[in-house]
Specification:
The complex is a heterodimer of chains A (229) and B (205). Chain A is 23% helix and 25% strand. Chain A has 229 residues and is of the alpha+beta class. In chain A, a hairpin with a 2-residue loop joins strand 7 and strand 8. Chain B has two domains: 75 residues; 105 residues, Fumarate Reductase Cytochrome B subunit (Up-down Bundle), CATH 1.20.950. Chain B contains ten helices and two strands; from the N terminus they run βααααααααβαα. Chain B starts with 5 loop residues before the first strand and ends in an 8-residue tail after the last helix. The chains are: A alpha+beta (229), B mainly alpha (205). At the A-B interface, helix 1 of A face helix 2, helix 5, helix 6 and helix 7 of B.
């Protein structure tokens, strides 16, 4: 019922249409807004990040549960076309020459985490222990989360910023981040970076990985593959 | 016990619409959080199953909403829509000072209904794009997941507020009867929704 001086107005639809328009146009302004908001959440530690998705990380898995890391029984096997297959314990890996880098992590689904501090081992040191044969062309990375696997050519694996990471932002990898060991390839989308890494098989022909079997690109260069660029 | 006077506040169609939406929202929220929060993802696992439940619930939600609207009492829904749409001087005063006689919906409920409806569409659009983006790169946009997340976070706050007012807050929780059984206590309605309660013939049971 109307009261004098104020005609009833259709504000309900304005609220509805306003929120709708704000949401739809956010496809244009969301990236800018998230850049402004990012510093507010990126300060979160890895520990906090295991509870809330702070710092932009999303955790994707393909199986029922994440592998559990047991330092006593865990090992990394390097085999295939090598002179001497090796099995490395967690302590063995810790004794190899360590490297550190700060790089940006890009997920193919669109999110990005900048300035990630990784610490780990260059692949070269691990491969040298096993001694790849002359016929070796590619590496097959097998996850403890079955049946996840992916692969790189040897040339790709020896890029200067490719790393077998043991630490993220100053602490050992947590379970959701692939404890104790994951592959990091900053120039490629994250699905190439196998988590819960357990085996590196040296092969003559590059095999198809888990996501490649579902239509994702073998060479997952950031901005130049999977429909981007 | 003295006979309690009751007023019918929500028709069966209105209640069906509310509970279809509420049930779907809760399932989508639970599965969504289990996919989204690392702590829950680690605890629950079973990601492919959760994702399937999430997607199929969304489809079931859309179908059920259409079924309720088509098969239900559309006249009562049109009346509801009109009431939510129109704000008069009392609604304006209520938003400013919380003190003005209100109709069947107070101004806050109208705003909440409008936002909820818009969010449902935004969730559907961004969710559909996420689904399509996994299948065709032309539908893959970096910000879709961000927008879906923001909607979730804001919805969670709105939902908690709604839950508090409907179940806990002493002066508003009487309204819960209206959404479960349809009727509300007439005396409560006269205090909180006087512009509506005066128009309804009291039904006593």
């Amino acid at each position: 019922m109307a009261t004098e001086g104020f005609e009833p107005r259709r504000y309900g639809r304005r609220v509805f249409l306003g929120v709708l328009a704000g949401g739809l146009t956010s496809f244009a302004w969301a990236p800018a807004a998230s850049r402004i908001l990012a510093p507010l959440t990126s300060g979160g530690s890895q520990l906090l990040g295991n509870i809330f998705p702070v710092g932009g990380w999303r955790i994707y898995t393909i199986s029922g549960s994440m592998p559990v890391f047991d330092p006593a029984s865990w090992s990394l096997t390097v085999d295939g076309l090598v002179e001497r297959p090796v099995t490395l314990t967690y302590d063995d890996l810790r004794r190899l020459p360590a490297a550190e880098q700060v790089s940006t992590f890009h997920c193919v689904t669109g999110w990005t985490v900048r300035n990630v501090r990784w610490r780990g081992i260059r692949l070269r040191h691990v491969l040298d222990l096993a001694g790849p044969l002359r016929s070796a062309r590619a590496l097959r990375f097998v996850s403890g989360e079955h049946p996840y696997e992916d692969s790189l050519t040897i040339d790709q694996a020896l890029l200067p910023d490719v790393m077998l990471a043991l630490e993220l932002d100053g602490s050992p990898l947590s379970r959701p981040h692939g404890a104790p060991l994951r592959l990091v390839i900053p120039e490629m989308y994250g699905y190439k970076g196998v988590k819960w890494l357990e085996r590196i098989e040296v092969v003559a022909e590059q095999p198809t990985g888990f996501w490649e079997n579902l239509g994702y690109d073998q060479d997952a260069w950031v901005g130049k593959s999977n429909g981007y660029g | 016990m003295a006979e309690q006077r009751r007023l019918l506040r929500f028709t069966r169609t209105e209640r069906a619409l509310h509970w279809v939406h509420a049930t779907a929202f809760l399932v989508l929220l639970a599965t969504g959080l289990a996919l989204y929060l690392p702590s829950l993802a680690e605890l629950v696992g079973r990601r492919p199953l959760l994702k399937n439940i999430h997607v199929y619930t969304a489809v079931a939600w859309a179908v059920a909403i259409v079924v309720v609207v088509v098969a239900g009492d559309r006249r009562s829904l049109r009346r509801t829509l009109r009431e939510i749409d129109v704000f008069d001087r009392d609604d304006r005063d209520w938003l400013r000072r919380r003190q003005a006689p209100q109709g069947r919906f107070n101004a806050g409920q109208k705003v909440n209904a409008a936002i909820t409806a818009a969010f449902a569409i935004l969730f559907a659009v961004s969710g559909t794009l996420l689904w399509l983006g996994e299948r065709d790169t032309r539908f893959r946009f970096a910000q879709t997941i961000l927008i879906h997340d923001w909607l979730t976070q804001i919805s969670l706050l709105l939902f908690l507020g709604h839950l508090y007012l409907a179940v806990i807050h002493p002066s508003t929780r009487h309204a819960l009867n209206g959404m479960t059984r349809g009727w509300v206590d007439a005396e409560w309605a006269e205090r909180h929704h006087p512009k509506w309660s005066g128009d309804v013939p009291p039904e006593t049971r």
